[in-house]
Design a protein that fits this description.
Family: Belongs to the CTP synthase family.
Distance between the termini: 12 Å
Catalytic activity: UTP + L-glutamine + ATP + H2O = CTP + L-glutamate + ADP + phosphate + 2 H(+)
Oligomer: single chain
GO biological process, one term: pyrimidine nucleobase biosynthetic process
Protein name: CTP synthase (glutamine hydrolyzing)
Pathway: Pyrimidine metabolism; CTP biosynthesis via de novo pathway; CTP from UDP: step 2/2
Mean pLDDT: 88
Strand content: 5-15%
Number of helices: 3
Length: about 60
C-alpha cells in the first residue's frame, strides 16, 4: 500500500477507530489502512462485519 500521509494525519487525533461494514471493493484499502494504524499505534479498534474481517486479514 503506498504512503497515505493525508489519511494518517486524519487518524492521528483519533481516540479510537471504528470500521463499519460495506459492500463491494469501495473503500477497502482505506479500511485496511485504518486497521493497520490502530494496531501499530495501540488505538482501540472496533470492526463491524467487513471491518472485523479486515482487521483479521490485516
Amino acid at each position: 500500500m503506498p504512503n497515505k500521509t493525508k489519511e494518517v494525519k486524519l487518524l492521528k487525533g483519533a481516540d479510537a477507530v471504528l470500521v463499519p461494514g460495506g459492500f463491494g471493493d469501495g473503500g477497502v484499502q482505506g479500511k485496511i489502512l485504518a486497521a493497520k494504524y490502530a494496531r501499530e499505534h495501540s488505538v482501540p479498534f472496533l470492526g463491524i462485519c467487513l471491518g472485523m474481517q479486515i482487521v483479521v486479514i490485516e
